[in-house]
Specification:
51% of the residues are buried. The chain has 419 residues and is of the alpha+beta class. 34% of the residues lie in helices and 20% in strands. The radius of gyration is 21 Å and the shape is globular. The chain is built from 13 helices and 14 strands. A hairpin with a 6-residue loop joins strand 8 and strand 9.
Length: 419
């Protein structure tokens, strides 16, 4: 077992044990649905069945036979009916009935953890071709009842899985919103600074809508046919993401902080959404074979995880990013583009304050703050958008980082090369 010596810092440990991943992401072997607002156009769909429905169509579109997969990872954070069966159910529905693998739930860090699991499995030599599927329906979340035979009259406890956990940290008793306020107070982040980030991020999202959503169509089938609950007919058509708020400085200026004496307004935070996103992770030779452009290679450079003080969740992405860069042998100066999971504008303001990174090189074409928050899939979509931005640039190095409940963070560094 490898351990840190008494005089060894985490950075020193990473420098001496830089991990080199051979696993790659085939260019174009990934996709995302549009994201739909809470209780909106996708709220009637079972997230695993919907994810499999989309995956079958997207694999066929790319001429990828699902029988080539020998491993799978399913990421989801909100249970669905019969989701106990997890990944094997998903792969069975897409036409890969012999494929096994885990179902992972690490709240908002689920996507990066799924990518890491698949990459490490390939590095271990136990598998060669993995599908990573992330699905979530935040709408109509389950109402859970926990029996308590020793309780008065046998009465147990009830939990609204989504809302209750957003409102109450089991260690500190605070809400997710309060973590943003804690970081804002500690680092003197104002409402005005948060609103400036909101305006910039919404302007960057407009880049994805140019030329009839040309950027989104690089990885998203648009217009998108929304199936019925039994997947037998189309019940709606989505032209893109649903529920996008069009903020202006004037509109934001009229908003008051949600918490009395605080700084975070409704305009300075994201909104819950539904959707799914998938990607293939494989060996270099198979990556070239499955790529839609064989001149482009997408390497996974490294991962980083972090946990910060209880109640200060928006600080975690910075430390996770630093750990990912160190494990990759990279510096932030070498990173051409950053994508963040930013449920609060506070996240990005803090990142910029701590690192000095150019805000204009962060979250081009979109981010969680704008297109919403389906907890499991949003990281995969973020990495996909990061890849496409780097391809448009002609190649480069990118970093995705984000926070998660429990004051944790996970990050991944990638490198895109155009031969």
């Amino acid at each position: 077992m490898l351990t840190l010596g008494a005089a060894c810092t985490l950075d020193q440990y990473f420098q001496e044990n830089i991990m080199s991943f051979t696993a790659q992401i085939p260019y174009g072997a990934y996709w995302s649905t549009p994201f739909a607002k809470w209780q909106g156009t996708l709220s009637h769909l079972h997230s695993i069945e919907f994810g499999a429905h989309v995956a079958k169509a997207e694999l066929s579109k790319r001429d990828i036979n699902p029988e080539i997969f020998d491993y799978g990872v399913l990421g989801m954070t909100v249970p669905q009916h019969r989701s106990f069966n997890g990944l094997p159910w998903f792969t069975g529905m897409i036409g890969a009935p012999k494929v096994a693998g885990p179902t992972i739930s690490q709240v908002c860090a689920t996507s990066v953890r799924c990518i890491q699991d698949a990459a490490q499995s390939i590095e271990a030599g136990t598998v060669s071709n993995a599908i990573v599927a992330t699905v979530d329906r935040i709408s109509n979340g389950p109402q859970l009842y926990y029996p308590a035979p020793s309780g008065i009259g046998g009465t147990g406890r009830h939990e609204n899985l989504t809302l209750d956990n957003m409102q109450h940290d089991p260690i500190g008793g605070h809400s997710m919103l309060e973590t943003a306020e804690n970081v804002a107070a500690k680092h003197q982040i104002t409402t005005e600074q948060q609103h400036d980030i909101v305006i910039q991020r919404q302007e960057q999202y407009q880049m994805a809508l140019v030329n009839d959503s040309e950027f989104l169509k690089r990885f998203m089938s648009l217009p998108f046919d929304v199936p019925s609950a039994n997947f037998r007919k189309t019940v709606a058509i989505m032209e893109g993401d649903e529920g996008i708020f069009n903020s202006t400085p004037e509109k934001l200026g009229k908003l008051k902080p949600v918490l009395e004496g605080g700084t975070v307004t409704y305009g300075g935070q994201t909104h819950p959404t539904d959707g799914n996103a998938c990607m293939v992770i494989t060996t270099p030779d198979l990556a070239e074979e499955l790529s839609s452009d064989k001149k482009i290679s997408i390497k996974i450079r490294g991962f980083g995880m972090a946990r910060v003080e209880n109640g200060y969740m928006p600080e975690a992405p910075v430390l996770a990013a630093q750990n990912a860069l160190t494990s990759s042998g990279l510096t932030l100066d070498e990173i051409d583009a950053v994508k963040t999971h930013n449920p609060f504008a506070v996240n990005d303001v803090y990142f910029i304050k701590q690192t000095g990174y150019d805000s204009g090189k962060m979250n081009n074409y979109g981010c969680t703050l704008v297109w919403g928050h389906p907890q499991g899939p949003m990281g995969i979509r973020g990495v996909i958008e990061l890849i496409e931005e780097l391809v448009i640039r002609g190649g480069g190095k990118g970093l995705f980082t984000g926070c998660a409940a429990g004051d944790t963070g996970l990050a991944v560094a990638i490198e895109v090369n155009d031969k």
